[in-house]
Design brief:
heterodimer; A: alpha/beta; 10-stranded mixed sheet; B: 7-stranded parallel sheet; 5-stranded parallel sheet
Chain lengths: 291, 339
């Protein structure tokens, strides 16, 4: 049987779950340098779904696609370590300032260039914006149907795809035809860890922009082992309408940004004694808060 | 034309709370803009649904009623919205930040090339001056939302594209009937003209929906626990206190992740937003991700072993002590004082 062609959309994000005191600059902007950059968590759930299909359907190829600066090649290596076959880094200053719509446009133009794809899988949302918009917007721009909030891609055979979705108040199983865009929830199984064999194989995998200071030996290594070259595409490698890229292609604008400041108020301090608890309960009952 | 639109979600014939909350906010925005408020309902067996909607001050209810439109699937609902918005040119379109709204909103915004801001916590009308291009904008929708894990609050605008679209989570806005006698018009949508046969390519083959048993969103008193509660057994003390004083149990994300409480009890940015008259925070340190979901509580009692816990900044009463000692004392004293 012919395998599936799967593309996983992934994003390198600042780890907003571990924000320290130095994460904000004095002017109120985010100090990205102080935040560790990680593989967006739900994109890892998406990768696991792709790898499960690869385990199940022989000949399946899993390609990671990410848009970001040169540094974002790190997450492609991470994906290769876990079992992806290859990756493409989409990187260009022309994409700077993109909102979700301009990002989706750039990604959809890239996906169109990648040839026939059966399933595009993405994490439901990225932790730096929590918008959950890029998956559905990519689907719309490619004219494909979408299945969001996926927890399990049950099967993908004979052109049909069956997906279990996890919603607020229950589960739903839906069926559609490939090609299909699927976005995956955090409730889906965690991604498998790195495989030592793949770490050995791909630890020198580099994108073009990471090779700029490489010496001759390192360049020779990459010439001899083509799988170590992570595909890096710029705006010139895809067909785009410049007006729809970056800031000019972004209908939403940030008008202002405010730092969150705690406002302390006067609190009554109580001891964990029967006397103080008794007083508290009397007060709460007297002012009709409880009782 | 150029009115405020709200997409209303339907589950078993009932308009979702989040949609009614948005209608309440939509009415306010329409008043500020001196325009009308319109609602769209898409589903099946919707006869009389306008009676649930109009009291919120809705001037026009669009109804698309067809067997194939319930349960929700993406493409038919988005086809109807895209064509209707194309014809009616709303200036603002709102929907719930639910698994439906967050599936539908981006699809519609992409098709119309209009901006969409997810999970807004506040929506107000205001002006904007684009200094670079020397352009003045009147009466834009300020879409205010936390970003970067809640460490910043951003105000987003869509100066040039319409409709200005936003999603809002359940429980963030208040739900308030304007007048039971409010009368609007009903417009039935001719579904065949709005959807294509290929829109039904994705089919729901199985569905298990549960009525949410936990109702922390509407609880007047919430006893919430964090990681500092320490164990599932200690969490039972919270349940006991909640039962005694007539409240519900809530939890921080850390407590849910640790398995102390179920996800449906989670309060905060990735859970529910609550505004009870009394919030008892037990062993909760007070990360912004959590406080974003409870900071509007009328009264807060914080129980924490750390006397410098950030939650204390929100508290009216600070009790420095261990949950396992404090809560039994509270239960005992409550019982003694209500005899």
């Amino acid at each position: 049987m012919k395998g599936l062609k799967i593309v996983v959309l992934a994003k390198q994000v600042p780890d907003t779950r571990n924000v320290g005191k130095d994460a904000m600059k004095a002017d109120g902007t985010v100090n990205r340098a102080a935040l560790p950059a990680i593989f967006n968590p739900e994109d890892l759930n998406a990768l696991e779904q792709a790898l499960r299909l690869k385990d199940k359907y022989e000949g399946t190829e899993v390609t990671l696609l990410t848009m970001g600066p040169g540094r974002a090649a790190e997450i492609i290596r991470e994906g290769l370590y876990r079992g992806a076959d290859n990756g493409i880094l989409l990187s260009d200053r022309a994409f700077a300032g993109s909102d979700t719509l301009a990002t989706s446009y750039a990604l959809s133009c890239t996906l169109k260039k990648m040839g026939k794809i059966d399933i595009i899988i993405a994490g439901r949302q990225a932790i730096d914006g929590d918008t959950a918009q890029v998956g559905p917007q990519v689907a719309e721009k490619l004219g494909l149907p979408q299945i969001t909030y996926a927890e399990d891609i049950v099967s993908a055979e004979k052109g049909n795809i069956v997906v279990k979705r996890r919603l607020e108040r229950g589960v739903e199983t839906v069926e559609g035809q490939m090609p299909m865009v699927v976005t995956v929830n955090a409730s889906a199984p965690e991604c498998r860890p790195r495989n030592a064999k793949f770490v050995m194989k791909y630890k020198h995998a580099r994108a073009v922009s990471e090779m700029q200071n490489a010496d001759e030996d390192y360049i020779a290594l990459h010439n001899n082992r083509p799988y170590l070259n992570i595909g890096e595409w710029s705006v010139n490698d895809i067909d785009t309408n410049a007006e729809e890229l970056g800031l000019s292609g972004s209908p939403t604008k940030v008008k202002s940004i405010e730092n969150v400041v705690f406002q302390a108020k006067e609190a009554k301090v109580l001891e964990p004694t029967d006397a103080d608890m008794g007083e508290l309960m009397k007060e709460l009952i007297a002012n009709h808060t409880i009782g | 034309m150029n009115n405020v639109f709200v997409y209303c979600e339907i589950e078993e014939g009932q308009v979702a709370d989040v949609s009614l909350e948005l209608l309440t906010k939509g009415r306010k925005l329409a008043d500020d803009l001196k325009c009308e408020l319109e609602a769209i309902v898409i589903g099946h067996e919707l006869k009389g649904v306008e009676k649930q909607i109009m009291p919120y001050g809705v001037d026009k209810v669009w109804v698309a009623d067809d067997k194939r439109l319930y349960p929700y699937t993406t493409l038919p609902h988005s086809s109807i919205l895209v064509k209707l918005f194309d014809e009616e040119k709303p200036q603002i379109a709102l929907m719930g930040a639910t698994s439906i709204g967050r599936d539908l909103g981006p699809r519609v915004s992409s098709a119309l090339h209009s901006g969409l801001t997810a999970d807004c916590t506040s929506l107000v009308i205001g002006d904007h001056e684009d200094k670079k291009n020397k352009k003045e904008y009147k009466d834009l929708l300020y879409q205010i939302r936390p970003a970067f894990g809640g460490n910043i609050v951003a105000t987003i605008i869509n100066p040039d594209c319409r409709p200005q679209m936003a999603t809002v989570r359940e429980g963030v806005m208040k739900k308030e009937i304007l007048s039971d006698a409010y009368k609007g018009k009903v417009k039935n949508i001719d579904v065949e003209k709005y959807v294509k046969p290929e829109d039904f390519v994705v089919k729901v083959i199985e569905r298990h929906m549960e009525k949410s048993k936990v109702n922390i969103k509407n609880a007047g008193i919430i006893v919430a626990g964090g990681y500092g509660v320490g164990s599932k057994e200690n969490f039972n003390l919270l349940t006991e206190l909640a039962e005694v004083i007539g409240g519900e149990v809530g939890a921080s994300r850390a407590a849910v992740d640790a398995g102390f409480a179920s996800h449906e009890r989670q309060i905060g940015q990735t859970g529910v937003t609550v505004r009870p008259k009394l919030y008892i925070a037990c062993g909760i340190s007070g990360q912004i991700q959590h406080t974003a979901g409870m900071e509007e509580s009328a009264m807060v009692i914080a129980i924490n072993t750390d006397k410098n816990a950030p939650i204390n900044a929100f508290a009216d009463y600070v009790i420095t002590g261990d949950v396992a000692t404090v809560i039994p004392k509270m239960i005992k004293q409550y019982k003694e004082n209500t005899k």
